[in-house]
């Protein structure tokens, strides 16, 4: 999950010989959210070029359509206008929105052979929670992530902490944070102990806290939320208290987009952000750093996140068959490994981690395995029908509690009542 801009590239592609064939050339269009230049865009382009070189017969117009929000807006607008893409990567959490809009087709319709079934069953179960509903598979995991905790080893050493040991519990996060928070002679903070972004995707990192407090924000059918559960309120109060009571985190709304930069510039010694920032941190942190799972409270836990491939209605059978073949190819172990190495996103299939490339990468950079191992404790990202409206309610409630406009319990109670009003028609 990171900021992107609009780019457009056209690549001539075709399908793997023996996998799919057509007597006529087939035109495909797919929308994809990628980073601003750099590794992600380069790798997607090189993978597309590789597919092109190996497979004559299909032309793909690849539209790199901006952020996740930009992409889903463009997909829906194009579909309503009668020109849907055949394929798009959109947030896994947008699955219910796409179903509600009657835009997508389940991949199950194209699973015909034992090999097809083995491919579909080969993804991590934690990622499939946001990809399946009602016994159907609507999304194929690709650009997937979890939030992880990064820490500055030099700052730990300076604070008298073991630089190789991250805080493992909520209590330790506060304890370490107090030792890591620095002030100048005038009492102004020059380095915060902890930085958990509360803008951009506040519900996502907050879901790390709720999962650790052993509560689920929404059911798997996407039609009921639990925003006012006492465990949710407790998690929100802990987030607020990091600033207001413990003094280890910057007060007010903490920006998502500037968090890596703040970490690099030693404005914070610990940050929570997506594993999708792993390559960015490796390339730009001017100090030794560590990566760990998020700390536990009642249990360990984190949400999954990131994007899935979706198939869209309004396409010919030939186009859809070609699109499925492309998805199968680009999600295969070798290609998934290339994507992970370039970006830090989690390779979504265990067999990708068995490739020689991934074995060598993990041996050289063990931090890449943290998010993978955290999948054992992961839950589905908050996803409901009318998802943007519902998550906005939670985001606004968190903002009200963080800025002191409302107490956490009242803010979440109001958000739950409003979410209930939106979702009751889907039950």
From TrEMBL:
Entry keyword DNA-binding: no
Organism: Polymorphum gilvum (strain LMG 25793 / CGMCC 1.9160 / SL003B-26A1)
Pfam families: SBP_bac_8
Name used for this protein in its record: sn-glycerol-3-phosphate-binding periplasmic protein UgpB
Single GO cellular component term: periplasmic space
Family listed: Belongs to the bacterial solute-binding protein 1 family.
Subcellular location: Periplasm
Signal peptide as annotated in the record: 1-25
Stretches of the chain forming a coiled coil according to its record: 368-425
Function per UniProt: Part of the ABC transporter complex UgpBAEC involved in sn-glycerol-3-phosphate (G3P) import. Binds G3P.
UniProt subunit comment: The complex is composed of two ATP-binding proteins (UgpC), two transmembrane proteins (UgpA and UgpE) and a solute-binding protein (UgpB).
Keywords from the UniProt entry: Coiled coil, Signal, Transport
């Amino acid at each position: 999950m990171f900021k992107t801009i609009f780019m457009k590239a056209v690549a001539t592609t075709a399908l793997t010989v023996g996998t799919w064939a057509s007597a006529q050339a087939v035109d495909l269009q797919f929308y994809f959210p990628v980073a601003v230049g750099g590794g992600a865009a380069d790798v997607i382009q090189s993978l597309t070029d590789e597919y092109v070189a190996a497979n004559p017969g299909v032309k793909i117009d690849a539209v790199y359509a901006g952020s996740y929000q930009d992409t889903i807006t463009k997909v829906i607008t194009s579909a309503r206008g009668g020109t849907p893409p055949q394929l798009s990567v959109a947030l896994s959490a947008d699955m219910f929105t796409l179903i509600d809009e009657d835009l997508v087709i389940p991949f199950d319709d194209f699973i015909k052979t034992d090999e097809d079934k083995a491919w579909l069953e080969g993804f991590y179960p934690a990622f499939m929670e946001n990809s399946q509903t009602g016994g159907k598979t609507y999304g194929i995991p690709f650009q997937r992530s979890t939030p992880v905790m990064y820490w500055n080893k030099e700052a730990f050493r300076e604070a008298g902490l073991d630089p190789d040991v991250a805080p493992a519990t909520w209590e330790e996060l506060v304890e370490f944070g107090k030792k890591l928070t620095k002030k100048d002679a005038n009492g102004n903070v020059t380095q915060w102990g902890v930085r958990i972004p509360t803008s951009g995707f506040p519900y996502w990192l907050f879901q790390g806290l709720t999962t650790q407090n052993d509560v689920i924000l929404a059911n798997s059918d996407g039609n009921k939320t639990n925003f006012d559960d006492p465990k949710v309120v407790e998690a929100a109060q802990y987030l607020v208290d990091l600033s207001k009571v413990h003094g280890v985190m910057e007060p007010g709304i903490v920006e998502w987009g500037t968090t890596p930069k703040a970490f690099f510039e030693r404005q914070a010694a610990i940050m929570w952000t997506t594993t999708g920032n792993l390559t960015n941190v490796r390339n730009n942190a001017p100090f030794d750093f560590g990566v760990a799972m998020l700390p536990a409270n009642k249990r360990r836990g984190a949400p999954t996140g990131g994007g899935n491939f979706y198939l869209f209605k309004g396409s010919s059978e030939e186009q859809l068959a070609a699109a499925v073949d492309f998805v199968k190819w680009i999600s295969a172990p070798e290609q998934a490994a290339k994507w992970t190495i370039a970006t830090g996103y989690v390779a979504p299939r265990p067999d990708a981690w068995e490739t020689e490339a991934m074995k060598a990468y993990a041996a050289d950079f063990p931090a890449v395995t943290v998010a993978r191992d955290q999948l054992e404790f992961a839950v589905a990202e908050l996803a409901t029908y009318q998802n943007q409206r519902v998550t906005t309610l939670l985001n606004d409630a968190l903002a009200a509690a963080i800025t002191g406009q409302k107490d956490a319990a009242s803010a979440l109670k109001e958000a739950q009542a409003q979410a209930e009003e939106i979702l009751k028609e889907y039950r």
